Amino acid sequence: MSNNVQPIENDEVFCTMDQLNKDWLQAYNTDPKAIRNSYRENAVLFFDRENYIKGNQAICQFYSKNRNQIEQVKSIHTTYRVRLSENPDMVYEIGYMITEKYARYDFIIIWSNEEGTWLRELEVITLYASNSSDQEGIDAVRRKWVELANEHSPERLSTEVYAEDFTYYNRNTIYQGYDKLCEAYSYMKEPDFQIDLKKEFSVVVQPDLVYEMGKWMNSDYSGSYIIIWKKQQNGEWKIAFDSNW
Q: Are 120 and 40 spatial neighbours (Cβ–Cβ below 8 Å)?
C-alpha cells in the first residue's frame, strides 16, 4: 500500500492538526454545515476525481448535499505529514478516513497558517478501491520530469508528463491546460536551472491512482511536493495533480 513510511512528528503544530481533524469529524457527523469553519474562505476541494469546488461555503454545501454518500465518519488517520521547510506556515498531509459502513476515503490536505490559525486550504478526497498496482512506470516518468525540466523544456514537460485534464496548484492559484502550466514553469528556461525529485511516501488509492509526496532539490533550495499519478488508458502513468509552494 505504501512505502518509505516515516513517523509523524509529535510537535505542537502536528498535535494541533490532530485535534483539528477530530473537530472536523465531530462537526461533519453532527452538522456538516459547521465544517465551513475548518476551511479557508477560498479553499479548494477535489472529490473522487471530479473537477474542483472552490470556497468554504461551496465545500460546506457539497458535504451537506452528499451526506448520505459519505455517511458518518468513524475515524480519521494520518499516514504522512510534513511541515514545509520553505514555508513553515504550510503543512502537507496524507491520510484516510473510515465511515460507519467501513468505506475508506483517502485524502490529501494542504494546511496553511494565518495569524496563528491553521485551516484547510486544499483537500483531495478519493474512495479507496485497491492496494495493488505496478508503480515501476511511475519512477520512469518521475525521472523524465527531472530530465525535461533540466533541459529547460516546460513545453515538452507539460505535454509528455502531465495528463490532459491535470491540475497544478501553487500559492492559491489553479492552473489547468498546457499553456498555463508552461507559463507557471517558465522559470525552467533559465540557463542555470537544475532540479531533482525524491519520493518520500506514496500510497496506491485505486489501481490507476497513486498519491505521492516527496522533496524537490536544486543547488540553492529544497522543498516539498505533492503529485497524484493517474494511469492513462494506454497504460502510461501521467501527473493528474501537482502542487508545491
A: yes
Provide the β-strand partners of residue 242.
Answer: 168, 227
Evaluated on CA atoms 4, 7, 12, 16, the torsion sign reads: positive
- Specify the domain boundaries for CATH 3.10.450.50 within the chain: 2-127, 136-244
* CATH number belonging to domain 2-127: 3.10.450.50
**C-alpha to C-alpha distances, 58 to 39, 42, 54, 65, nearest whole angstrom:** 11, 10, 6, 10
Burial class of residue 75 in the structure, from the number of CB atoms within 10 Å of its CB (0-12 exposed, 13-18 middle, 19+ buried)? exposed
pLDDT by 10s per residue, the chain, length 245: 444 444 455 589 999 999 999 999 999 999 988 999 999 999 999 998 788 999 999 999 999 998 888 889 999 999 999 999 999 999 999 999 999 999 999 999 999 999 999 999 999 999 999 767 677 799 999 999 999 999 999 999 999 999 999 999 999 999 999 999 999 999 999 999 999 999 999 999 999 999 999 999 998 889 999 999 999 999 999 999 999 98
Check: pTM over 0.70? Answer yes or no: yes
> What class is the 136-244 domain?
alpha beta
CA-based radius of gyration for the chain: 18
157, 188 contact by CB (below 8 A):
yes
Q: Sort residue 237 into left (φ over 0), alpha (ψ -120 to 50) or beta.
A: beta
